[in-house]
Amino acid sequence: MNSWKKTGVTLFIISTVLISGVGCSSNNKTNEPSENISIEEGQEKTNESVEVVVEPEVEGIASPLSGLYAEEEKVNRRPLAVVFDNQSGARPQAGLIKSEICYEFLVEGNITRYLGIFLINEPEVIGPIRSARPYFIEKALEFDSYFVHVGGSNQAFADIKNKKVADIDATSRGSDVFWRKNHKRMPHNMYSNYGALKQAAEKSQYREEPQINGFKFDSSIEDMNKGEIANNINIRYSKGFEPSYIYDDENKVYKRHYNGVEHKDEISGQTLTATNIIIQETSARVIDDKLRLDMGTIGNGKGKYITTGKVIDITWKKGSYEGITKYYDESGEEIILNPGKTWVQVVRNLDNISIVE
Q1: Domain assignment of residue 348, given as a range
Q2: What domain count does the chain have?
Q3: Which H/E stretch holds residue 293?
Q4: Cα separation values, 135 from 64, 220, 243, 274, Å
Q5: 234 and 187 co-located in one domain
Q6: Each residue of 36-49: pLDDT tens digit?
Q7: Which of 48, 111, 167, 289 gets the most CB atoms within 10 Å of its CB?
Q8: Cβ neighbours of residue 84 under 8 Å, at least 6 residues apart?
Q9: Is residue 16 situated within a structural domain?
Q10: Orientation of helix 154-162 relative to helix 134-142, angle to 10°
Q11: Strand 112-118 to strand 80-84: parallel, antiparallel, or no bridges (unpaired)?
Q12: What is the CATH number of the domain that holds 252?
C-alpha cells in the first residue's frame, strides 16, 4: 500500500475513535449525575501544565573579600589596602563605605585608625589617608594588597622594605596620585581615588596577579541559628572613639554609629553598614616615646562573631606576619561568613564591649 494511502487509513481510524469517545462522554453526562472523578493511583496526568522554576543566573564570580559577585576582571586582581584617618578633624571619611573589609585599630594616644580593603569597588574619592603602622602592613599582606598610606613609623618603613610590600606612599608620589583638599586642616586632608592609585601601582610595575586567601562565605545570607541575641553593640576604645552598631532586621545589616551618631560617607551621605562584625581581642603595649603600640596580632586569642542579630564566641589564630588570620567557632570549625561587608574591631579587652538585645 502506498504511504499516502496508509496515512489516510490511519487518520480515518483515529477520527472514528475520537468521535466514538465524544459520543460516549456526551451520553454519560446526559444519563448519569455528575461526580468528582479522581485520577487513580499510578495513572498519569496528561494535559496538566507543569511550572518550571528557573534559578536566576548569577553574573560574575564571588569576591574572596565579601562573597559578593562581580565581574571576573574586578575579582581577579589585587586589592588596595588604605589607611584612613579617624581623628575628629578627619571625619567623615570618603570611600570607606565601599571597602569590603574594614579594620579599626588603636594607634598611639588611644585614638583609632581604619584600614579599608577594596577589590570590586572603585571609589572616586578616598580619604583622608594617614600613616602606616606594622599591624596595618600585616593585614595588607594577608590579602595580597597594594598598601596605601602617607608616611609611617620607623618600624613600618623597615617592614615595608623587608617584606617587599607593594607600597604606594604619598611621601614618594606626585600630586597626580595624592592631593590635599581645603575643606579640612592638615594633616587630616590627604585624598586620592581608585584610578590614581591603580595607575601608581602599574607605574611601579607591581605584580598584578592576585594571591588572595580570603574568608569563607555562604552563597546567600543565612540567619545564624545559634548564639545570643545581639541587636545593639557598643565598643569603647577611649573617649571620642566609640563605635556602635544597631541591627536592621529588614535589610539584615548593622548600621554603624560613631559616638552616638550615624557614621556616614562624606560624599554620598549614606550610612556605613556591616553584614558581619568580628571583634578580635589582642594585647597592646607602648613601645616608644611617641606612644606607638605593638599589637599582639600574631598568635591566638578570643573574640566574637556577630551577624543577623546573633553573637557567638570565637577564637582566632595567625601563624606569621604574612599569614592570614583565621577565626573559629567553639567547635573548632572555621566560621563561614554571610556575603557582604565585614567590620573587624580589634580591641585590647572584650570587657570594653557591650552587647544587648
Answers
A1: 228-356
A2: 2
A3: strand 293-295
A4: 21, 31, 20, 22
A5: no
A6: 434 344 444 444 45
A7: 167
A8: 90, 93, 96, 113, 114, 115, 116, 127, 128, 129, 130
A9: no
A10: 30
A11: antiparallel
A12: 3.50.90.10
